[in-house]
Fold these 4 entries.
Entry 1:
Amino acid sequence: MQRITWRAALSGAAAGTINGLLGAGGGMVLVPMLIGWCGLSDKHAFATAISIILPLCIVSVVVYGFHTPLPLAESLPYLIGGAVGGVIGGLLFRRVSAGILHKLLGALILWGGIRLLV
């Protein structure tokens, strides 16, 4: 197991803050930080981000749940679809190059940014 460094801890804190504040996006912050700041390889950074996001989301759900009722019934279809998509993405991960993963992440960030501005 890799020793925890202050860069890794700050990367996780940045991802957690974004994820908790916006309800998503922690991985979009985390992947570039893991690659550029923590020195992980591209594929390792993507896989590490995925393993970190679930616990961050659980913490965010607990915090949100203390402050406002959670729309669990309305969330169920998204949860089911997300689980199916997660399985598909996990199966495709080994077949997709790091370059394609970067392009997909960049396109997703760009699309989300445009949608938020327009």
Note: DSSP finds five helices and no strands in the chain.
Entry 2:
Amino acid sequence: MPVAAVDIGTNTVRLLIADVVAGVVHEIERHSTVTALGQGLEHTGRLSPKGQRRALATLAEFRERLDFHRVRLVRIVATSASRDATNGPAFLESVSSALGGMVPDLISGVEEARLAFTGASGGFPNFRRPLVIDIGGGSTEFVTAGSAVSIDIGSVRLTDMALPDRPSLAHQVAGARQLATDLFAGVPPCSDCDGMIGVAGTWTSLAAIAGDLPRYDRNRVHGSTISRTQLERMIHDLAGMSLESIELIPSLDTARAPVILGGAIVALAALTHLETNTINVSERDLLDGVVLHLAQR
């Protein structure tokens, strides 16, 4: 019988239904919908009303898929935006109703990091001591087998704080870059790591853009690499584009267009701080980590 994970993130709501056999995740269905739940959170302190409606509608659709597959175990996790918003508790009550009484877990940044590490590291068995960087909408996690750090900056949060315009003005981009740099200053180095893995929608979207894919292809994205040079180029190009032009990038989900520049700036700041030139991109992430833990119950 399959197990499932639901991730209620700052920018996306996601579902993985899978069979886990001998510690290997065999995907049945995987879905991701941009809801922009945390849009404007930095200014209002509250989850977006439109984002909440989109999230609840998406979760109702996910419930149908869970019922269809007769999923035996489900874990729903809520992350950065739900942790920080004043109306987060009320929203999570609505989530429980949308999912037929299933109660979501409001997890810490550290647990989020651990789950992402479990999921991502399984996709790169050749790395014995990887560092996983998980860029979300509201936070970024740096995690190894023995440590985890969560920083409250992500693609949505940085966009809200420093990138109000498209095209973006030079001083706005410079300010956003400095803000991300300052926030990552306390992240410890990983001198003995033998590989770096980027997980979640910012990294996978940037990898598709860097690869000039004619459409998003998760098989080509997984295992690809992104360099600091590519990120510098993407930041330069994205900053000079209108929102409408960004939406026309063929491999990019149009709903990610408002925050992809912010995500690229966070990504470059992370690699620059760690003094690494490239990172491997993973399609396996927190969702995979959740279902692996569920299968052990």
Note: The CA atoms of residues 45 and 85 lie 5 Å apart.
Entry 3:
Amino acid sequence: MQQRQSYNPFANIDLFCVLFYLLLVLMGWLNIYAAVYNEEHKNIFDLSQKYGKQLIWIGSALVIATIILFIDADFYTVFAYVFYGFFLLLCIAVPFLGREVKGSRSWFRFGDFGIQPAEFMKFATNLALAKFLSNANLQVDSGRRGVSNFFSKYRNTIIALLILGLPLLIIKKLQDETGLAIVFAAFVFTLYREGLSVNFLLFGFAAAVLFVLALLVDNTYLFIIISSVCALSLLFIRRNRTNILLVVLIAVVGCGMVKATSTVYEKLEAHQKIRIDVLLGRGTINLKKEGYNVNQAKIAIGSGGFWGKGYLQGTQTKYDFVPEQDTDFIFCTVGEEWGFIGTSIVILLQLTLILRIITMAERQRSDFSRIYGYGVASVLFFHLAINVGMTIGLAPVIGIPLPFFSYGGSSLWSFTILLFIFIKLDANRLSILR
């Protein structure tokens, strides 16, 4: 009688990915300690301080990661929509049952600790999107089949965008968390990998350019430029009825987007207008008010020079010149104390992990695992790009944490769950028959 082999939940897991995760979490913890360091509290294990609390979050995150590896990989496929629905309900409930933190009612508080459901909505949405797109014979751009009816032609694209758009709208409208809401736009890269037409990306890029130009250039001039460019394009294309109607439609849509941008901007709240003005350099920026955060962040990073001032030696950090230096602006601590070398190493480590995830995604034997892997890479890259960008003035200040670095249990837990579900799915690939 053949002896039954014991189940090993750690078999075939990608050690490279796990080690990079542990390294980034450790570096993040040390930087949180540096960001809130003071002479009165030197004990790095002091649980009354943020770095002590973060150590608890790290320990619990490791427990969660281990539990994820013990659970059968099929569990995440079967219950993908359940996770999505559950956290969607929590996101709807938290504005009514949660507590207000920094002007936003998006947290459930349990004593000194808080949980933000919107953070966990990222991995839940990734599961739901992977589940939907991995159905048999499903493609994002079903229009390739030549179906004339619009909904039939773009049915899959519309449903996929609704899966992403629903949590985005709920988090933005009910919780007023702009930063967490726009993260869901990162999944567009996953859709592109699965067959979304490049025209959607080009349209998004054109919309972004028009958005910026509409705020920097007089609208009348833009109307003239758009109309002139479209008129000139008729000289270089075949002038038939279809092409002429298409050019006219592009001109109308372009002018409409410019007008809509100006209208929406005027209806924004004052602090939202200020953030856009600071990013675009519009008007005179008061460095003691609206421009303070970004200016101090630039000073902190610039003062680090090439090698940095040394660990725990950052004056901008030590004397709290940089707001939110342990959360949204944790990268400033890295820049001031570790310098250009330190920031480059952190960015390279993050990018290496993302590239590793993409490589792992491409070797998957199931569509679900591949799609989910690309979702993980998209979310991590989006967080990295926006967080670093806003600290150096290249992106608006919208409160997005740096993965595995920023202080906070919800963000660390959500990134851990997001990553380790994929590590488990990857470990399970060898048991899946082609």
Note: The first helix runs from residue 15 to 35.
Entry 4:
Amino acid sequence: MEEKTNYILFAKKPEPGKVKTRLAEGIGVAGAARIYRAFLQDILSSLNRLYHPFAVAYTPADAGRYFARISGGPSALFPQQGRDLGKRMERAFLKQFSLGYDKVILIGSDIPLLSPDILEEAREAVAEHPAVLGPCRDGGYYLIGLRRPMPELFSGILWGGDKVLRDTVSILRRQQCNYRLLPELSDIDRAHDLQELIVEIKSRERTDRFIPAHTWQELSAFGANS
């Protein structure tokens, strides 16, 4: 019997002043919200191209109707629940495993270069490894895939710090749990991250490498295509 995989997108409703606050310091709250909305559109587009189930775990709690409208038909929509990011991720994994999925892959929503190919690579990797992580250049991770609930990975971590990946890997090693690292990507938190993203996307033009179309269109408002 083929194993069942589900992806979970952790996402916020792109309301000005409530998303990408550090990015907003450089480009304003309205611009940061527009950029984040473009990130969401690109990641949802990638998920819909996979032909595998995916769920959206959203915040705030009243954002369900918004995500139902933009997400293109996920397998489930549910609000994030928990006192911190770790507890919210732990509960999201438990919810999907309780529904009978054999492999669950959770992804963040501020990684515009997260392509369908990387998402598919994660699915294949978690078939062979109990844990899969997608490293961010700032020391966090943009993706975590598991074959069973591992609540220990979500406690005792300083979320938002630069040692999230390191501390998570340390827990896996202490438990002698085999894991796989995916290609490193950048999350976009500050204005200089946005400039680096522009340079990276420009370098991909006239190649067959993935370009996040909605993000690139939105970046044109900042002179990216000039």
Note: The beta strands are 5-12, 54-59, 76-79, 103-107, 131-135, 141-146, 179-181.
